[in-house]
Amino acid sequence: MRTKGLMAKGAHAFAQWLLQTIKAHDVNSWDAGRSSGYVAGHEDGQILGHDEGLEIGRRQGHEKGLEVGHQEGYQSGHETGFEAGKLVLELKPGVTPTDVAPGVDINLFEHFEFPISEELEQRIRSDIKKNLPSYQQPTDPQWKMILSRSPSTYIVAGAGSGKSTTMVLRLLVLRYYLNVPEANITVVTFTRDSRFDFIAKVIKVFKQWGLPMDEKIGKSFVRTFHARILDFFKWSPMLQGVKAFEFLSKDATAEDEEPENLLDIRLNVRQLDLMNRCYQNLFEKHDRFRELIIELVKHSVSIGEPLNPDDPEHAKRLKMLGRCSRRDPETCESVESLWRKAGRWPMPGVTTELQPIKLNGQIFYANGYAQDLDALVVLGIDRSEAEADTMTVEEGKTKLPLAMNMRRLFFRAFCSKRVLYFTSYEEALCSLETLRGEVSEIPKFVYQTDGDIRPAPIMQAFHSAASFLENLGLDVPEAVKAMSFFKKDMDAKFFEALGLFWPAFESFLAEQSPRIFTFNRMFSMYSEHAEENFSKLPDSVLKSQMVTLVDEFQDCGANTISWLRGVLTELRLRRLQYPSSQGLIFPSLMAVGDDWQSIYGWRGSSPKFFQQFKQYFPSPNTLPLMLQQNFRSQQMVIDAAESIVKGTRSIKNKHGEAAHPDVKDLKFPVQLWQRDDQRLVDLVDQHYEAGHEIMVLSRSRSTLDEVAGKLASTLDRARLEKHADRIRIMTYHGSKGLEADVVFLVGDCEQLTSSNWRNQAYAKAKLIMNGEAKAYDFAQGEEVMRLAYVAITRAKIHCYWFLDAPKPGSQGFPKASDRIDKRQPFFLDQRR
After folding, report:
1. Is residue 427 over pLDDT 50?
2. DSSP secondary-structure letter at 575?
3. Facing residues of 375 across strands?
C-alpha cells in the first residue's frame, strides 16, 4: 500500500509538471486535480493508519489516517488545481465574442477634401477682389463658405445675410477654378421665382470671368426639387413623357410647365377634373366608399355641432336673442334674394314659405321645408358671394354676415329639429339629391378637417390632407390605419374615405396616357428605401448631382430629405467621382438655410432636418458655418425680430449684426400701433412721398383686401406715376425673400387651431423633438413666432406693426405679440 501511495504521489507530481510545461489543460483540470489529490491523500492515510494501528488499534489508526490523508490530499489537490486554473485566465482573458461581423459605414460622403490648394485660394481671393466692387467683397464667414473643402457643409444664413451672392461665388469656384462642368452640378431652389432670380445673378457674375452663361444654361443646373425629380423618369422608355400632376396647366391645350409657386396647393380645373373622374368611378363601384361619402354629405349640410346652451360664452349672445328674432324675417329675405339672383332658389321639393320655430322662447325662421326628408332648410351665404359683405339689415345697423352668423349660433344652441344648412349655390341641389338617393352626379360638398381654418371642397380637402401626410414621408393608407378618433368624430369617416380614395387616385393617374404621377409619389419612388429603383438609374442621371447645393433647406419635408439621402447613398455606392483640373472630386452637399425662417409646417416641412443636419447627413467631415451679418436691416429691426423668435427651439448662438453701410448706424424702433387704417394710409402716403419702397403685409387675405381698398387712391397715384412697384401688398408668407425700405404689418401672427390628426401624423413621422404630447400643435406655436420674424425682417429702415385689440374668448394659443417686450428700446409702443 505504501508503494501505491508513492506511485500516486509520483503520478500527481508528473501531471503537475506536464501541465506547467505545456501551459494548458482541459476545462475540468481544477476538479481533476482536486480529485487526484484526495485519492493520493487517502492512500497515505491508510499506510499511516496501519503503522499506528499496531499500538492503538486498526480502527483508530484508520480514522486518524483518513483525517490526515484527507487534509493533505485536499491541500495538494487544491494547489495543483489553482495553479492550473490560473493558466486559463492568462490564456483567454475577457468574454469570448459571439458576433464578429464588421460595422456598416453609414456616411453619405467619402472622406475627402475639395482640391483647393493654398495657392489656388490666394488666386481666387485676388480675382474676386479685382473683379467685384468693394460693397460685394465677401466677409470672413462668407469666404469660409465660398472656399469650403468639406464634402458636407451647412450654413445658417440669417435674414439679409447675402447667401444668394455667396452661393453664386461658390459656384464660380466650382465651375471656373475647379473646372467642374454644369452637367455635374445641381443647385436646388424651392420656387420658380427664386430659381430665375438666382440664374440672373449667376449670369451676371460668370460673365465677369468670361464664362459662357445664359438663361438656357442656367436652367439646366439651377432647378427646383420638383423639376429635378422629373429627370429621374425621363431615361426610361416605359416612363417617357410622364407628367407631373402639379405641373398640369388648367388648359389642356397649353404646354404644361412649372407653376409660379408650388407651395400654393390649390387645384386648377384640369387637376380637379382628374380627381372627379376617379371620385365618380369609386363612388359608383365601391360600396364602403359610397357609404362614407353619404355620411360626410349629411354632416356637411348640418347646421353644425350642437352647442351647450348653458355655456357661459353664450351669456352675451343671449342678450341679443330678442333683437335677432325681430330682425330675422328681414335677414331671411336678404339671403333669399342672393339665392334667387344666383338662380338657386327655390329648390325642387322644398317649400318657400318661412317656417317659424321657437329658439329659447323667441321666434326665428327657416327658409323652407323638405317634407320627404322631414328637414328644415336654412340658407347661408355662399362662400364666393362678394355682394353680401356690403349688405345690411336693421336699417344699416348690422351687416348681413354678422346677422347670419348670430342666427346660426342660436339654431345650433336651441334647435332640436333636423336642419339642412346650405352655404353653396353649386353644391346645394347635389347634396339634396344625395340625401334623397337620387344621385345624378357625384356629391359635391365641403368638409373641414379638425384644425383647418375653413372648409374646402371635398376633392381639395382630400388633396390637402394627402399631400400633408406624404410630405411627412408617410404612406396615406398606412398613416390613416394608424390613426384613432373618438367614436362620433366625423374625421374618422373622412380619413377612412381618403385612405380608400388616394391609392385609387394614384393608380388612376398611372393609367393615363401619358402616365401622370404626383410629385410625392415620384419622391417616394426614389426615396432612400427604394434601392431597387435607384439601381436601375443610369450614371448620367446621378452624375448631375455630384455637387449639390440646396437653398432654403429649412423648408424641406421628409419626402425630399429621403430622396436626397437616397441620391447621395447611390452616388457613394457607385463610387462616382470627377477628375477636376485640381484633383478628384467626390459627391458633396452644401445646404443653406435658416431655421428661424421655417414657415411651411402647415404643408409638412420641418426645421428639424436642418437643425439636426449631421444626423440626417452623416459625414466624416462636416463644416458648420454661420452668416450673421445682415446687409438689409438696421439693428433695431433685427433685434426686435429676434426678440420674438429667440424662445423657439433653434440652432444656438445666432444673432444678426447690421452691416449695410447705408443703414447700420440708423436707429428706428419698430413702432406698435392699435389697428387704425386711416393712420396706416397717412403713413404710407408720407413714405411714398419720401421715395421709399413700401410693403404692406398681413397674414389674412381678407385683411389685405380691406387695406387695399383704403389705399386705393395711393395705389392709383403710384400707377399713374409709373411707380406701381414701389407699393406691394402681400401676405407674410408671400413676402419671404423680399425686402422694402418700409414695412407695415397689419394684424398679429397667431396660432388659430389645434389638430388631432396632424398631431398623430407628426408622431408617426417621428417629428417629435422633445417628447411633447402634441408635436404638431407645439410646432405651429413656434411657427407663428418665425412668421413674425420673417415679416419684420423684410424692413430695411422702418417697420410699423398695427395690432388689433385682444379678442374676447381667446383660446389661449400662442401669438407673436405676446413676445413683445415694451421695455426694450427696439420697440416703441404708440398704442393708447
Report:
1. yes
2. T
3. 370
pLDDT tens for 171-211 read 999 999 999 999 999 999 988 888 999 999 999 999 999 99
Helices (H), 209-320: 215-221, 225-234, 269-285, 287-300, 315-318
Q: Let me know: does 83 contact 51? Beta carbons within 8 Å.
A: no
- Cell 495657392 identifies what position? 119
Element (H, E) at 789: helix 775-792
124: which 3 cell numbers? Answer: 481666387
**Hey, which bits of 559-701 come out as E strands?**
578-579, 584-585, 588-593, 622-627, 629-630, 657-658, 670-674, 694-698
DSSP label at residue 72? H
Q: What is the DSSP string of 469-530?
A: HHHTT--HHHHHHH----TT-HHHHHHHHHHHHHHHHHHHHHTSSS-EE-HHHHHHHTSTT-
Q: Is the previous residue joined to 514 through a cis bond, with omega within 30 degrees of 0? A: yes
**CA 648 to chain centroid:** 16
Contact yes or no for 729/708 (Cβ under 8 A):
yes
Across the range 404-433, mean pLDDT stands at: 92
> Strand 368-370 to strand 375-379: parallel, antiparallel, or no bridges (unpaired)?
antiparallel
Cα–Cα distance for residue pair 515/239, rounded to 1 Å = 7
Residue 219 has which C-alpha cell? 436652367
Q: What are the tens digits of pLDDT across the range 633-674? A: 999 999 999 999 999 999 999 999 999 999 999 999 999 999
Residue 286's alpha-carbon distances to 290, 439, 500, 763, in angstroms, are 6, 15, 9, 31
Give φ, ψ of 603 to 5 degrees.
Answer: -110, 5
- Tally Cβ neighbours within 10 Å of residue 799: 29
In contact, 495 and 469? CB cutoff 8 Å:
no
Residues 6+ apart with CB under 8 A from 248: 256, 268, 270, 271, 274, 516
**Phi, psi (deg, nearest 5) at residue 357:** -150, 140
Instruction: Give CA angle at 296 (477, 424), nearest 5°.
Output: 125
Residue carrying C-alpha cell 416605359: 238
Q: Kindly report, residue by residue over 473-496, the tens digit of the pLDDT.
A: 999 999 999 999 999 999 999 999
Sign of CA dihedral 270, 274, 277, 283: negative
**pLDDT band per the 50, 70, 90 thresholds, residue 426:** confident
Helix 58-91 to helix 29-53 angle, to the nearest 10 degrees?
160
CATH code of 635-829, in short, is 3.40.50.300
Residues 42/68, Cβ–Cβ less than 8 Å? no
Read off the pLDDT of each residue in 423-439 and give the average, rounded to a whole number.
Answer: 89
**Using the 8-state DSSP alphabet, how is residue 666 labeled?**
-
pTM, 2 dp = 0.83
Taking alpha carbons only, the member of 666, 729, 708, 717 closest to residue 689 is 717
Class of domain 118-242+519-544+552-627: alpha beta
**So what's the pLDDT on residue 214?**
95
Q: How confident is the model at residue 14 (pLDDT cuts 50, 70, 90)?
A: very low
In terms of Cα–Cα distance, which of 231, 154, 220, 223 is closest to 523?
231
16 pLDDT above the threshold of 90: no
Residue 517 amino acid letter:
F
Q: Are the C-beta atoms of 763 and 482 separated by less than 8 Å?
A: no
The answer to whether the beta carbons of residues 695 and 737 sit under 8 Å apart is no
Rounded to 5 degrees, φ, ψ at 592 are -120, 130
Percent of the chain's residues with pLDDT above 90:
75
**Nearest-angstrom CA–CA distance, 418 and 409:** 15
Nearest to residue 601, comparing CAs of 753, 459, 745, 446? 753
615 SS3 class = helix
CA dist., res. 334 & res. 343, Å (int) = 15
pLDDT tens, residue by residue, 566-577: 999 999 999 999
Q: How far apart are CA 1 and CA 301, in angstroms?
A: 112
